[in-house]
Protein: BMC domain-containing protein
Organism: Blautia intestinalis
Amino acid sequence: MSKAIGMIEFKTTATGITAADAMVKTSEVEIVEAQTVCPGKYIAIITGDLSAVKAAVDAAVTTYEDKCIDSFVLGNPHESLFPAMYGTTQIEGISALGILETYDAASIIEAADQAAKTAIVDVIELRIAKGMCGKSYMLLTGEVSAVEASIEKAKNLVASKGMYLDSSVIAHPDQRMIDSIL
């Protein structure tokens, strides 16, 4: 049995809450986060054994397919995801800064997991549709080549879903810029 996380993103709060309730009734999973995000969409993130998370997400998406924006299930998510989501990541120095922005909430978590598993990078922040009109972004750091490879891999993943908005890599960002965003 492996640990997993899953997420659903719905067009409306009413359907999102109903779907999240269905997920926890379907399988032995825990809700990590469930809330309304901009612009009135609803997200629910769950965790548990891979098979339970998959069953819960599949049940919610199948039942409420017409209102589902996106969903995912990640087996063995990278350990940096949760600190980045909740703003508890501690970074000592930034050699390069990678930024990737998406049109939705779910794909940014998948992108961050992919980026963190591609090269030796630290995911600094995941902003999931809060105060961004439904868009999301991630910040990551590491050596320039590692950040470039990670951003490229994440970009390709979200582009294949039609959710890629923009990205960039800044080699040796100025400390004043770092201080303003972290």
The longest strand covers residues 41-49. The mean pLDDT is 92. The longest helix spans residues 144-160. Helices lie at 13-26, 50-63, 81-85, 106-118, 144-160, 175-181.
